[in-house]
What we know:
4-stranded antiparallel β-sheet
Amino acid sequence: MRPASVVKVYRYEVLGVDIGAQIPEGFITAVAVAEDTLETELGADTVVADTLTGLFRPLIEGEDYILHQSGLWLQLRNTLPTQEGLAVTYINADGEEVGTFDAEQASDAHNADPENNPPPFLELMKGVNHRPGTATWRREMHHVYRVSVSPGVVLSSVELTISQGDPEVGNTFRSTPSATQLEFLKIFGLDDNPTDNMLDASRMYDAGETGGYGTTGPTGTYIVPPTLEPFRAPPPLRDVSDPVNGQPFPLEPGDQNNAIYDEPNDQIRLGSNLYLLSINYRQRFEGFLSTISLGFGGVREGSERVLIDDRELTRGEDYIIDYDIGQVELRDPERWFLDNPDARLRVTFEQKPLFQLGRPATRSGPPVSSISSASRSPRKRCRHAPSLDSNRAPCSWAASRLG
């Protein structure tokens, strides 16, 4: 149910504090619980629960996360590691507390007299065993795809092609039972115009332009399909001259990517790429481009190549790179762009297996960047920029539904 109060957000962290030791400053002790009702393969309902007990750090809105103005979802500023959790508490529209709303006060009372004061309870949004079949899995938004984490994307310039494999091969459409060819873009509800084969503006979300939070929260541009599991359950077709109009496209079993939504084995799920999203866009910058976000952290050391036009740059002399956060900084951008503002910057790199099965990727600089990746391969190749596959959200864990 929609929150009617501020939403307090807490991050579960493992600090190695011994039982009975003093609670670190800035943390509370709490119990976070989540429950969900799942349908088994036999069609029966089963209730699953997940619990985290320990130290939680209160997060700051605008610095650590943003809460959408609807109150129905939030977005973290940084990726949440696998071994950490996320919990919330708020008062819903019926006036009922979800979790212990005064969690800090309840934690202080519990720590002072644990025998007579129970710990506060929080609503768990992401547990340390977060995967399909757990109580928190459906609380993550698995249908949000990041275009860029940096502001300045020109929304009218964003072009999207969905394919199985290399889009140049042409595997970008399927035919209805009546032999009407429809692009994947339309099948998955990202293009309602029957003639232009272009990404609809309504399917893009720009945090900088549409947030209105009055804070310095996360920025970026994202693509949001109209259904929660678009690559398995697409939305009803619209404005299609075919008997299937008004119904979801009848995907063949081989065109349904069930593993990214259902597979509990992390290794298999993260490697189950079927569809490739290739994106071209323009991005505005103030002054000279000096810092390039690769879109992903965990870059394999020494795997990057940085090129401006056809010249390869030298690490330490021409640029520095932060492998953990995936960021390249040019040491003298004016040298490259002052007399050649249309110079093309390209970065190729590989990610560590911690985040994905080793995937080389590339990013292009001004004036145009694009995003793509290959599919069905544990070692994916990206031609122009960090990839958007049909198995990952904007960050490893970035957005959660509250309603």
